[in-house]
Write a structure and sequence with these properties.
Elements (H helix, E strand, L loop, with lengths): L1 H18 L5 E6 L8 E5 L2 E6 L1 H13 L3 E6 L4 H7 L4 E5 L11 E3 L5 E8 L15 E5 L8 H6 L3 E5 L2 H9 L5 E5 H10 L4 E11 L1 E5 L6 H13 L2 H7 L8
Parallel strand pairs: 1-4, 1-5, 8-9, 8-10
Antiparallel strand pairs: 2-3, 5-12, 6-12, 7-10, 7-11
Helix pairs in contact: 2-7, 2-8
């Protein structure tokens, strides 16, 4: 009888924890991103998330929803199937434009912040049109979509040069191996502080409003995610996260 009581009490406590929203959610993070979005460290051959916007954002959202958090690092090519299958509950810094294959297979949250691509270079002469650099190699990140440059890449007007991440492309730019690279305005705001010679021009490429995507196989409710986003936007948490990485006017 005593053992039965313990089992019943354990079940009630577990049920109570679930009712309070304490069951962990699996928060997916695109591990192909670099700082300021993602900071990883190698722990005996295993990548571990230790910082960056997405870590701060995930913790802030989980806190507002009163949920425990479990990180799941996923390469970009596995983002769509991981969300569709329910392997991860939620992944942020995403948009329908970047993941058209699962546009209707996940729940999309309200907006987080604006992201647009800029052309980055170190020459002194300003650039006013993409046509001014036709014939050049342009450094981009492998497997990433750049709709604003797609036609130029396909026609051969620009030569796409893929790198593993933006820091790799910046190093090639600074060493003179390429003259131009493309990154988001968020990333440029961060890296310009680390590498002052970098210059950028906004040619109105690929502007999107980033969101969170919630798997339709998850128990996590998109309404709760939207409430949490609204809360961290109103109370200034989101602005503090962004400004801590040198961003301004991104909301």
């Amino acid at each position: 009888m005593k053992q039965l009581f313990v089992l019943i009490l354990s079940a009630l406590l577990a049920s109570s924890a679930l009712a309070k929203g304490k069951s962990p959610i699996v928060f997916g993070v695109n591990m192909d991103y670099a700082m300021p979005l993602v900071k990883l460290k190698d722990d005996n051959g295993t990548s571990v998330l230790i910082g960056g916007i997405l870590k701060d954002l995930g913790e802030a959202l989980a806190k507002e929803m009163d949920l425990d958090l479990k990180w799941y690092l996923v390469p970009k090519r596995r983002v769509a199937p991981s969300l569709s299958s329910g392997k991860i509950d939620i992944l942020c810094h995403l948009s329908e434009v970047w993941q058209p294959a699962i546009k209707n297979d996940v729940w999309w949250s309200n907006k987080l912040y604006r992201s647009s691509n800029v052309l980055v270079y170190i020459r002194e002469q300003p650039i006013t049109s993409i046509k001014e650099i036709y014939g050049e190699h342009v450094g981009v990140v492998l497997n990433f979509i750049y709709k604003g440059l797609e036609d130029s890449f396909e026609s051969g007007a620009l030569k796409r040069e893929d790198g593993p991440n933006n820091i790799s492309n910046i190093k090639k730019l600074l060493k003179g191996r390429i003259n131009y690279i493309v990154m988001s305005n968020l990333e440029y705001a961060y890296y310009n502080n680390l590498y002052p010679p970098l210059r950028s021009v906004d040619l109105a490429m690929d502007e999107v409003i980033t969101k969170c995507a919630v798997s339709k196989k998850s128990k996590l409710k998109i309404e709760d995610v939207n409430k949490a986003i609204a809360k961290i936007t109103r109370n200034g948490t989101l602005s503090k996260i962004l400004s801590s990485y040198y961003f301004k006017n991104l909301e």
